[in-house]
Write a structure and sequence with these properties.
15 helices; Serine Threonine Protein Phosphatase 5, Tetratricopeptide repeat; mainly alpha
Length: 308
């Protein structure tokens, strides 16, 4: 009876009928209340870990997953316990209960490593790094990302390698190790080409532009503009007004550093419009103020001849 319910639940899950899958799994739990695997699957469903759905509930997910851990007990196979902890850690992270998330991912990582499951261990290291980033613990995040890259090489898994090394670049940027951050983003760009991964390619160019803009001098401002211009080939106002506005905002600062105030004013104006379109009123007001300031700086002083 339970096996039949599980087969039907799996079919409903594959078809995206999450409510139906949950009803079937709850029926199975009533028949086998001591089955920790059923509680784990219900916890995953309620977490929305597969896909977002209206019945997703972090609180219910935690309840089922914690009950699964209690039922599993010390005799539970390491891999099974680690899978429960992985889902529970991700659920805690979405609830912003970061200390609990770290505890879960650390235990899961240790279990996977002891079992020799390298890919799963690398995923937990990646998850730990992401939670450390949320807490601003950038140096810890760097160590976890670097650990994940021991397994997530470009040759073994180019997609996960790119995601990990991009995040590592961001962590390096936060600790002001600009050289390593630039190197990470450039390595990610070799995988995330504009043709294959246009959105991620644009984000990487935006990040590189942002780093160069944080460095002094006009040469770095020009480098920043080259990368920000490439980002705008994908980040259009129609497709992604918020991203478009952010990139234009940084372009405005680059032009202002180059004393090209008319171009800076244009960029800040575009940023203002994009921020408004994406509902970011505070950022829109900031961009509007900078646009007016750049326009004023671009005008010749009263009584002074305009430069030809």
């Amino acid at each position: 009876m339970v096996s039949a319910l599980l087969r039907r639940a799996a079919g409903s899950c594959r078809s995206g009928r999450c409510g139906e899958a949950i009803d079937l799994l709850e029926s199975a739990v009533r028949l086998e209340p001591a089955n920790f695997g059923l509680h784990q699957r219900l916890g995953l469903c309620y977490s929305g870990g597969c896909r977002p759905h209206p019945l997703a509930s972090a609180d219910l997910a935690v309840t089922y997953l914690c009950h699964a851990l209690a039922l599993a007990g010390p005799g539970c196979p390491a891999g099974a316990r680690a899978r429960i902890l992985d889902t529970l850690g991700n659920t805690y992270a979405r609830m912003r209960r970061f200390a609990a998330a770290i505890e879960c991912h650390r235990e899961a990582a240790a279990l996977y490593r002891a079992a020799g499951q390298a890919d799963d261990w690398a995923r937990e290291e990646f998850n730990l790094a992401n939670v450390c980033c949320e807490l601003g613990r950038w140096r810890e995040a760097i160590e976890h990302y670097r650990s994940a890259l021991e397994v997530r090489t470009r040759e073994r898994d180019a997609r996960r390698y790119a995601a990990t090394i991009e995040n590592l670049g961001t962590a390096y940027r936060e600790v002001r190790d600009h050289r390593r951050a630039i190197d990470c983003y450039r390595r990610a760009l070799r995988v995330c080409t504009a043709f294959v991964h246009p959105a991620q390619n644009a984000a990487l160019h935006h990040n590189l532009g942002n780093i160069y803009l944080s460095l002094p001098g006009t040469r770095n401002a020009r480098r920043a503009l080259r990368h920000l211009d490439r980002a705008l080939t994908v980040r259009t106002r129609a497709a992604s007004p918020g991203d478009y506005a952010t990139t234009q905002f940084h372009r405005g600062h680059a032009f202002a550093r180059l004393l090209m105030q008319d171009r800076a004013a244009e960029c800040f104006h575009e940023a203002h419009e994009g921020f408004l379109a994406s509902g970011q009123k505070d950022n829109a007001a900031m961009a509007r103020g900078l646009s007016l300031r750049a326009e004023a700086a671009a005008r010749p002083l009263d009584g002074a001849p305009a430069l030809c």
